[in-house]
TrEMBL record:
The keyword Glycosyltransferase applies. The keyword Hydrolase does not apply. This is Glycosyltransferase. Its EC number is 2.4.1.-. The gene is LOC115734982. Keywords: Glycosyltransferase, Transferase. Residues 8-47 form the Glycosyltransferase N-terminal domain.
Length: 454
């Protein structure tokens, strides 16, 4: 179908929460007949499955082990900027010797230097923001000087156009605890300082989901929503529909999950996952474990390094018998799309939040860091698809709180309302990316421009 001009290079940051949406973006370009190449690091390239999307390696300077091989986040980020710029440039130069010269780079929020590469070649540049537009607007407000990081003590609660009132516990950690995120925060602020220099600013969200923000910033902030970047095969529960795409960095134990789920009644299982980063404390794991146990419900829990995170892992597994399954990694969408799953206990990473909404899942938010607290607030107060768990005095969510939230969402007074709202969001999400929907239109306009060449 690649019968027209235009070739887009899509550049993800090599972490799971970034590869997934950018690969999906590339796939949608390909399904609109555009040539799309995903350029990813040597360390991650072996994980990418893609049929119509071309895949090429670039280097971050740590070809053997990726960021884990780097002495620090700062060192990794600097190396990626230096070596990445060089290898990305080589890739573009090489394309000029073929019939498919690259004329646009779509790069991840965490790779702001790609803009300079695009400028050197005089080609289009587009950034794809992988957080919600509401969270991104906070960065933008910092850049505008309407908010400071670190926060002024008298800035709370935060009141800004298009956003609900934000208390300290609602804030992303780049605002609440900026010292813990300095390397990434610097990168993100670098990008926001130069947002206007991009030809497009895309966001993995959809207009209906963040309508107030879109309205408040209309005409001020040139943001094009193109999400949710969630494969539609799962949304339609045709999970055999399209397995030719994927970029899982770990091997899923999906067969085991599916077989286990096949034997459970409709909507009876709680799916529990805290994302790909593994940054959950042992104390928190202990509380989750006993909270889940106390619900008396079936559950699948994704937890890397389970044996070391829980004090008595064997006794715990014995005590829940076949009511719970703990796995290192699964195909999350396949599990969420399974008919037996009825509730998602999530850390509220932005991808997981969008996946839950896209699949119509009632949710319990247990945010850990980054933008998760803000997403959890929205889940409860704005989208009204579930509850967020509150931290206790020790700074962890207690087992009682876990049990209470799960019970309320699954069988409490408002459980039917949560279910209904979740299904409504599923519908709206699907409409946004279907032919003529808001996100599809934005994508279509981009594709038309790229096809003109230039
Ligand atoms: N599609 C579309 N706009 C979108 C996403 C998908 O028109 O934003 C169409 C696409 O062209 C194809 C169908 O929906 O005809 C299914 O898309 P595909 O499975 O290739 O991608 P996905 O929907 O999973 O992104
Ligand atoms: N994921 C998965 N299997 C798992 C856990 C997570 O496939 O066992 C995927 C999940 O579907 C999502 C991504 O990993 O697309 C995690 O991204 P998110 O933004 O939710 O969280 P992060 O890992 O960035 O904290």
């Amino acid at each position: 179908m690649e019968n027209q001009k235009g070739h887009v290079l899509v550049l993800p940051y090599p972490a799971q929460g970034h590869i997934n949406p950018l690969l999906q973006f590339a796939k949608r370009l390909a399904s609109k007949g555009l040539r799309a190449t995903l350029a990813t690091t040597h360390y991650t390239i072996g994980s990418i499955k893609a049929e119509r999307v071309h895949v090429e390696p670039i280097s971050d300077g740590f070809d053997e082990g990726g960021y884990k091989q780097a002495p620090s986040t700062q060192a990794y980020v600097e190396s990626f900027r230096r070596v990445g710029s060089k290898t990305l440039s080589e890739l573009i130069s090489k394309s000029y010797e073929t019939e498919h010269p690259v004329n646009c780079i779509v790069y991840d929020s965490l790779l702001p230097w790609a803009l300079d590469v695009a400028k050197t070649f005089g080609i289009y540049a587009a950034v794809l923001l992988t957080n919600s537009a509401s969270v991104c607007s906070l960065f933008w407000y910092i850049h505008q000087g309407r908010l400071t990081s670190p926060l002024c003590p008298d800035a709370l609660p935060i009141v800004l156009p298009g956003l609900p009132l934000l208390e300290f516990s609602d804030l992303p950690s780049f605002l609440a605890y900026p010292e813990s995120q300095s390397a990434y925060l610097a990168l993100i602020m670098e990008k926001f300082a130069r947002l206007e220099e991009n030809d497009w600013v895309f966001c993995n969200s959809f207009e209906e989901l963040e309508a107030e923000l879109v309205k408040a910033l209309f005409g001020i902030w040139p943001l094009a929503m193109v999400g949710p970047l969630v494969p539609s095969a799962y949304v339609d529960r045709q999970i055999d529909g399209d397995t030719s795409y994927g970029g899982s960095l770990w091997n899923p134990t999906s067969d085991q999950c599916s077989r286990w789920l096949d034997k459970r009644p409709l909507g009876s299982v709680i799916y529990v996952s805290f994302g790909s980063m593994g940054n959950i404390s042992s104390d928190q794991v202990e509380e989750i474990a006993f909270g889940l146990k106390a619900t008396n419900k079936h559950f699948i829990w994704v937890l890397k390094d389970f044996e070391h995170k829980l004090k008595s892992p064997i006794q715990f597994l014995d005590s829940i018998q076949n009511r719970g399954l703990v796995v290192e990694w699964c195909d999350q969408l396949e599990v969420l799309a399974h008919r037996a799953v009825g509730c998602f206990v999530t850390h509220c990473g932005w991808n997981s939040t969008l996946e839950g909404l896209s699949l119509g899942m009632p949710m319990v938010g247990v945010p850990l860091w980054s933008d998760q607290a803000t997403n959890a607030k929205f889940l409860e107060e704005k989208w009204r698809v579930g509850l967020r768990a509150r931290k206790g005095e020790q700074g962890t969510v207690t087992r009682e709180e876990v049990e209470m939230c799960v019970r309320e969402v699954v069988e409490g007074e408002r459980s039917e309302e949560f279910k209904k709202n979740a299904l409504n969001w599923k519908d709206r999400a699907k409409r946004a990316v279907s032919k003529g929907g808001s996100s599809d239109k934005n994508l279509g306009e981009f594709v038309a421009k790229i096809r003109e060449g230039g």
